[in-house]
Amino acid sequence: MEQIPTPARERLLALMRILEHSAEKTLSSAQIEIITGWSSHTIRKDISYLGEGQTIGSVTGYDRETLLPVIKKALGLDRSRKYCITGLGRLGSAYLNMGVLDGFELAAGFDTNVNRIEILPSPAPLYPAYKMAEVISRLGIEIALLCVPAASAQTAAEKLAAAGIRGIVNFAPAVLNLPPAIKVRNVYVTDELRTLAVRMEN
User: Fold this and answer.
1) What is residue 140's DSSP assignment?
2) How many CA atoms lie within 13 A of 181 on its CB side?
3) C-alpha closest to that of 169 among 181, 180, 185
């Protein structure tokens, strides 16, 4: 299969969400263009990277139930992945109880405050932060949601990386300095609000 460029991967992820929430059995590239603003040519090109274009498409469009699993397989989302939450303050606690995420299993939560661990209701087992390396390795956890204060973010991220975590969703307003092999997504609410405000002014 041809290597999928990063912009195409991002669009395929968005297309996957559209397909998951669509009530239509088939969607044409023209319909997807209306929903997303991408050109029909771009949509067809992105889907061609999946290597199964002849079996996915038809005269009427793309079959939702056929295309969705092909995208998931191509993006490595066709298996369940375990994740943990590091930092169980207000934000971490909210994510702790947000329910089941399709394709992801909440395997553990970590916090430096032992009292917090003992009293928090949780669908997953909670551990003190010093057990991070042992638990992450034993349970095969790949991804972490980092919900600690900014001042603690770098140290916590380094411990996660040393424990074997491969990807971090960073909610702390701090720039992390980690090896390139550790993939990081920064989610800063202030930046999102600023971006939205700028768009509203244009």
Assistant:
1) T
2) 8
3) 185
Read off the pTM.
0.84
Tokens encoding 200? 């509203």
Beta strands in the chain (DSSP E): 26-27, 62-63, 81-86, 104-111, 126-128, 143-146, 167-170, 183-186
Q: What does the pLDDT read at residue 164?
A: 96
∠ Cα 116 96 82 (to 5°): 120
Q: What is the amino acid identity at position 192?
A: E
Task: Work out the mean pLDDT of the chain and round it to a whole number.
Answer: 91
- Beta strands, E only, 67-189: 81-86, 104-111, 126-128, 143-146, 167-170, 183-186
Q: Which two tokens stand for residue 131?
A: 């057990």
